[in-house]
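Notebook entry, structure prediction.
Reason for the run: the old model in the group folder had no record of what sequence produced it. Starting over properly, with the input documented here first.
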Amino acid sequence: MNFFKEIGVKKGISRLFVGGVHGKEGLSTINALQMAENITVNGGSLVLCNFPPSPYLSTLDPLYYLSLAGSKLLDLVMKNQPEIYLELHCYHPENYAKLTRQDRKEIFGVPGLMELKNGVLIGSVSPLIRSTFFDLNDFPFTLEMPCNPSEESLQTCREIMEIVAGSGNRLEIMEKLSSVYPQRVETLNSYFKDFSRNFHSAFEEIKQKSLKTPLKDYQDLKKLINDVLDEGNFDLNHVQIKQLEGAFLIFKEYGSFKSCKLNTRKKWNSGKKLR
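New structure, fully documented this time:
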């Protein structure tokens, strides 16, 4: 890591803002993260981290999470167990259309990112970790800024980070964002409903059935996924179905993490009730 800072207290809501996830993006995202060094945290903790340059692999590729950079990222996620997670990226101008295109879901399996202002885009993180490392009502989002960001872009990033750091849960964040970007949040909420109803529900069903189904090889996994999709009324395209496979393989690799995370939360919530 070439930048790391922890703000707040260990108990309570865990937040993680991370940049430099792949390639040389950290050379740009460090500027936004450093602006958050003195940000106000409303209870709980906030960890800021920026990674050094690494080979570029898309976070939509399961192989990323087996790479050195991806493993470091997941180690950080598992250590901090964030309910609120912001993954900072940067993009070059020629990639703007690719990131925001309306048919991005059909081509890449994920909806197009939404521009807030000053070239800053927002959307959910990769479904490969959205399903495996986060609960449905957590806030795992991506914030994309132009590479070599302008002061205006950095200020927009700071405004979003202030909202996220000053909130305690997904609902509160979305309500605050809605007061500034109502149409954008309406679209993001529709994306969330689609994810909940289709990808998330299918993935949960696959996990449950895998407990009762011996999976000896890839063909067994493929059959299990196809059986779940045939039985359920899920609206998923062929790219998303492939992502279900990748998400499940990551889940198996790190399968014990989520149950540990849930147990930790239960203990914390019980402690709050006792007090």
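Summary: The first strand starts at residue 3 and ends at 8.
The old model has been moved to the deprecated folder.
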